[in-house]
Write a structure and sequence with these properties.
alpha/beta, Rossmann fold, Domain 2, N(10)-formyltetrahydrofolate synthetase, Formyltetrahydrofolate synthetase, domain 3, 3 domains, 12-stranded mixed sheet, 4-stranded mixed sheet, 19 helices, 25 strands, globular
Length: 556
Amino acid sequence: MRTDLDIAQQARLRPIEDLARQLGIEESELELHGPHIAKVSLGVLRRLADRPDGRLILVTAMTPTPAGEGKTTVSIGLGEALHAMGLRVVNTLREPSLGPVFGTKGGAAGGGYAQVLPMEDINLHFTGDIHAVTVANNLLSAMLDNHLQKGNPLDIDPKRVTWRRALDVDDRALRNIVVGLGDAADGVARPEGFLISAASEVMAVLCLASDLQDLRGRLGEIVVGYTRDRRPVRARELKAHGAMAVLLRHALEPNLCQTVEGSVALVHGGPFANIAHGTNSVVAIRMALKLADHVVVEAGFGADLGAEKFVDIVCREAGLRVDAAVVVATCRALKLHGGVAKGEVERPDPEALRRGLPNLMTHVENVRALGIGAVVAINVFPSDTPEELGALEEALRDARVPCARVTVFAHGGEGGKALAREVLAVLESPRREMAFVYPLDAPIRDKLHAIATKVYRADGVAYDRRAESDIRLLERSGFGHLPVCVAKTQGSLSDDPRLRGVPKGWSLHVNEARVSAGAGFVVAVCGDVVTMPGLPSVPAAEGIDIDGDGRTVGLF
């Protein structure tokens, strides 16, 4: 089969104005970035405010293998299938971070015949949204250090600065550094570090803001550190939020693209689900719900991370309702959770697959506990055997979980029609009320206990001394009412990536807690999670190049 890049470069793309017109977007509401990408004005939301919303379909997954289970590909393929069936549909997806593109995981534009296009642009600089996030983040850092240098009238403790610089490249050498070295004119020496841009609170703010003024207000609420008497200091006190909003003005507008088969996608925002809330922007989802009858949204990693955060943080904040959910599963992931080594998951092993089923079923139960009807998408890989696929389907039938095989990577929308029919059946079934894992007025510890025991199946929560001190400070500072965003490994239901399946007899280990006041949540850091990844021994960047005709080569 041809590579993703070959398929993308040989696809026949429609002018983006044609797709916009098909959706009812007016020409004056578009800002073109070439013939196949456009920014869409937020004026669309105001113009269509009285139009009823379409139905929202959430795509999540079981606990993945390190390579991922094709959740983005399934999301795009489901959109293509609904489009091929004559339905008005929009995919809403996150923008790829350059870190994974040049590092290990690759891009985030789908794969095979279920891709959003133009793939090279989307996976690389795109429309500059992530660069805008990076610059806005670092402007705040520069103004903070300038404040410390110019007399520090707010009495910020340099040892209690919590704001870090950002860069959209995997670079482990920047995790822990010291700034301000040199003579007195070079600034105040203090510990510092970098996050990958997708982990910046600015990214979370961008994705949760409802409009430009809300964006400006949220940026002003960002806590950059604490004074010597432990009072939180916000970006608005440094008078940085206005300029930050100016830098992000156009980045707040969703990006209109298309799939290999000509269906529509809004690609916008890019927080990671293992360290942030993991879904694309609220404005893109709201816009899609006004423009289409069916909207497919993807939440990062497994349902323990993406789906829980989408409901408890995004839906609660934005007033969204999920009408159906897809849980992506693969034979290889089931075998991994059945005890097979990660390098052996392509080998046939039906018994290991059966042993791994509790992991999948836990994610299905979690989705149902949120009040959402679930369908399992069996993403078929070439190494899957008929016996393995049959065993999985039989187990799901016995558990009364609707499922469908998906071959969208090889067959595009045609390979997703069986899944689409199952999803449409769920949409026609009686609607249940969405349920949150915890009430907002609960103390932070109670919220963490609810997530750990109800979603991760832990026995409880254990706190480092630093985490206990952090939580006391956060609640004393007035942040106890915020939802909790758990930062943990995506490779396990637990906080230890080595624990497969559904681990028993463990406690969630909270190392530290910090506030993302602009985004509107408290972050609990659990296990060995890093917010600035490192490159692998052989980075993907080594194989990426440009040929004599100026075409990208080696990009997946």
